[in-house]
Write a structure and sequence with these properties.
- The protein is mainly beta and 159 residues long.
- The chain has a single domain, classed as Immunoglobulins (Immunoglobulin-like, Sandwich), CATH 2.60.40.10.
- It is 13% helix and 52% strand.
- Strands 1, 3, 5, 7 and 8 form a 5-stranded antiparallel sheet that branches.
Length: 159
């Protein structure tokens, strides 16, 4: 006749599972989105793009001008990452930093940065150029990441 072991010895994983269920997670939880936004609630990044060229033809190198405005506690250093959706244009430089920018003052006294994004027209067609800026919103020594994005539709004409 075979004797069986007591239930505790046969299923040791049950005790571990019960202990985890009773104790709850031991890893601290991440702060909530509302608590993170309270660090700098009015911080924002505005990005606008403009093409100085009236007509772009295949093979033309040209520049897209990006205007970046940091508002309400958003501050640098920051980074601009341009991307192209489609094969019509190629972004020559994939990342630009705040130290690459020209600092300008508007007529109403607001300060903004201007960056020149080098681009090369590769093929005829329409493409969307996007520029994403990553900065930080800070208040009382605590910071949170702030993102802003701008886009521009470009039409590349045959040579």
């Amino acid at each position: 006749m075979k004797t069986s072991a007591p239930p505790r010895a046969r299923r040791p994983w049950r005790a571990a599972l019960l202990a985890i269920a009773c104790l709850g997670p031991v890893v601290p939880t991440a702060p909530s989105v509302q608590a993170e936004r309270a660090i700098a609630p009015d911080a924002a990044v505005d990005v606008s793009l403009e093409s100085p060229a009236a007509a772009v033809h295949v093979g033309d190198p040209f520049e897209i001008v990006a205007h970046v405005r940091l508002r309400g506690g958003a501050r640098g250093p920051w980074m601009l990452a341009p991307t192209s959706d489609g094969p019509a244009v190629e972004v020559v430089r994939g990342r630009l930093l705040s130290i690459d920018a020209d600092v300008l003052e508007d007529a109403d006294g607001q300060v903004h940065a201007r960056l020149r994004i080098p681009v090369l027209a590769r093929a005829a067609g329409t493409t969307v150029l996007r520029a994403r800026v990553q900065a930080y919103g800070c208040r009382e020594g605590r910071c949170r990441p702030i993102d802003g994005e701008g886009s521009l539709v470009l039409e590349v004409l045959p040579p």
